[in-house]
Write a structure and sequence with these properties.
It is a single chain. The protein has two domains: about 10-145 and about 175-255, Spore Coat Polysaccharide Biosynthesis Protein SpsA, Chain A, CATH 3.90.550.10; about 270-385, no CATH class. It is about 45% helix and about 15% strand. The protein is built from 15 helices and eight strands. The protein has an eight-stranded mixed sheet with strand order 3-2-1-4-7-6-8-5, sandwiched between helices. Helix 1 (about 20-30) links the parallel strand 1 and strand 2. The longest helix is centred in the middle third of the chain and has 24 residues, at about 150-170. It is globular, with a radius of gyration of 22 Å. The N and C termini lie far apart (about 65 Å).
Length: about 375
């Protein structure tokens, strides 16, 4: 197929998806509202033994979008490696087409994107962000086969996650990622500008959590990441996943061990509020040029002066925040057990109602705390935690 001027390429890692790849391809081929933007699809088939390649070959002649298929056999393959190879090939295709301002999108072979998926991602990037993360929903047929207990737990976790997300958006607002937003980071729906993808070194080839690590690298470099709640992709809810340690294994564990810990980000409300307030405070200190005055913040977070000085010299705010949370014993994530969720949800709703009503309780508390910190910095991490 001759080279085409492309605006975007969708990278799809594929492993033994003969039954589902047709749905994925047809959904990508049906993308609408792209105007003059060219769209390509890059399939990276790794270690496929179930006839996936034959299914793709049979479909390609009926598709209107250009499709490239790469087949690779590699004994050490894992999910992160496969996604990286797919995205690297997509990046090379854009560069070959002379599209330096192109966009790489990625989804999964067992996912179905809506017909405006690419258009919504491109629109967000056109408005000024560097990357876009969408939300995911389980396939209804797959979800119907999951136990009721898993759905009940998922509903509680989802409710608490939404509350924490809004609390953070109100306590520490981010201009390019305003409320409403979400917390989801999934390889089933990511988009990134080609230049930014290259800048951060691409997708890390991790066996588990490559998508989260990639977004973390974007945030650490101060890339503008939008968590768009209007972008929703349907993905598999099967328990026999293709990637060890992935979403399928997580759901399987929760079926077998109902009290297994929640996602680490779902921490007790007081710790979450403490974290959000300190993210805001560190942002303010850096913006005002006072981050180097480590006595204003390091003792309260239990961070040694020499470590704090190194953190203060980091080049980006994202790197500062990541290093601070990694170094502070006060900011270690302590995940909840499912039984704790109802109480935390009630507390979070109460706090959020205060913020929504315009009673800026936490803003005043944070301000008074900051004044106290600047007036007399404490050297005890225990005392900092009490504060």
């Amino acid at each position: 197929m001759p080279n085409q001027a492309l605006r975007a390429v969708v990278a799809v890692p594929v492993f033994n998806e003969a039954e589902r790849i047709g749905h994925c391809l047809r959904a990508l081929d049906g993308q609408e509202d792209l105007g003059g933007s060219g769209l390509g699809v890059l399939l990276f088939l790794n270690n496929c033994t179930d006839g996936t390649a034959h299914v793709v070959a049979a479909l390609r002649t009926s598709l209107r979008r250009p499709v490239r298929m790469i087949e690779r056999a590699y004994a050490e393959a894992n999910a992160g490696w496969a996604r990286r190879e797919a995205m690297e090939a997509a990046a090379a295709w854009l560069e070959e087409s002379g599209t330096p301002d192109g966009v790489i999108l990625t989804t999964d072979a067992d996912s179905r994107v809506p017909n405006d998926w690419v258009a919504r991602n491109l629109a967000a990037i056109t408005e000024g962000v560097d990357a876009v993360a969408g939300r995911i929903a389980l396939d209804e047929a797959d979800a119907a086969r999951l136990p009721a207990s898993l759905h009940a737990r998922g509903a509680l976790e989802g409710a608490y996650e939404a509350l924490l997300t809004e609390l953070e958006a109100r306590i520490n607002p981010v201009a390019h990622d305003p409320w409403p937003r979400h917390w989801t980071t999934s390889g089933a729906t990511l988009a990134v500008r080609l230049a930014i993808y290259r800048q951060v070194g691409g997708m890390p080839p991790l066996a588990v959590g490559e998508d989260k690590a990639f977004v973390s690298s974007l945030l650490s470099s101060d890339a503008r990441v939008r968590h768009d709640p209007e972008i929703l992709v349907v993905t598999s809810g099967r328990l026999d996943g293709r990637a060890p340690g992935g979403a399928a294994d997580t759901m399987k564990l929760r079926c077998e061990v109902p009290e297994s810990p929640c996602d680490p980000r779902l921490e007790p409300l007081p710790r979450a509020l403490f974290r959000f307030a300190w993210r805001r405070r560190m942002s303010q200190l850096r913006a005002s040029g006072r981050l180097g005055r480590t006595a204003l913040w390091a003792p309260w977070l239990g961070i040694r002066r020499d470590v704090a000085a190194t953190i203060a010299d980091l080049a980006t705010l994202g790197a500062v925040l990541a290093a601070t949370e990694a170094a502070s014993p006060m900011l270690i994530y302590r995940p909840l057990r499912p039984a704790e969720l109802p109480r935390q949800i009630r507390r979070a709703r109460a706090v959020l109602n205060l913020l929504r009503s315009g009673r800026q309780v936490f803003s005043r508390l944070h301000m008074s705390k900051s004044v106290a910190v600047e007036g007399a910095a404490q050297s005890s991490a225990e005392r900092a935690g009490h504060a």
